[in-house]
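Session log. Operator J.P. requested a structure for one protein chain; no other inputs attached. Running the standard single-chain path with token output.
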Amino acid sequence: MIEIKNLSFQIKSKKILNNINLKIKKSDFWLIFGPNGAGKTTLFKILTGLIGNYKGEIHIDTENIKKKSRKEMAKKISYLPQFDEFSLPLSVKEILLAGRYPYTSFFKDYSTKDYAILNEAVEQFGLGDFLNRDINTLSGGERKKVLLASAFIQDVSIILLDEPFTFLDPQAVSNLKKNLVTLNKGGKTIIIISHHIETLFSMVNKTAALKSGHIIYSGDKVFDRDILAKTYGIKFNHLVLENREIIFIDE
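Structure written below.
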């Protein structure tokens, strides 16, 4: 579904990404981890077309993304950045309907299908009480849920999330995890950037470790002390509890 070949990117003389190669299949659930400054967010911005002056090739469904418009890309991939900023007093309903933007034009209003998908997302994500609320009045967890629902409404096959658990309380984290698992089981390909290895390890099937713009490891999920130590410079350990593998820092 996604094939990244020899991807490199630099700003002036500083290399941000260096010879990145990844293959991501349909319905994969990836965790990309690594220290701050590793190039993780830059990778997401390149995948979504926000950065275009890179070297190498990226294909989504065999198509080179450099040949696609932003609107065409929005039919394939959704990106939820680490921080969301809404300066305008938009309602939750307006935010959600904006997810249908790739399928509309200046001369076309939202269709019956658009509203049917909206209603399905509202029910699935439990947003019925929020529809007429200003997005700026919601908590961090509620806003994340709205943005994830918007990605569902966008009806894309690939969802990218950058540090989705930032500022969330434990209940909000639990709810978001359940929503992500549901989307993945429904066929969505999900790629998450996060330091929360211990939270996500049991959910994903693929991992990639990134440090200083280089891929240290990519492939099937596997607990490897050497990979984690090389990535973060500290020791990790794990245990299996009730058939769940739990990762933790070995202090």
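Operator note: The chain is about 30% helix and 30% strand.
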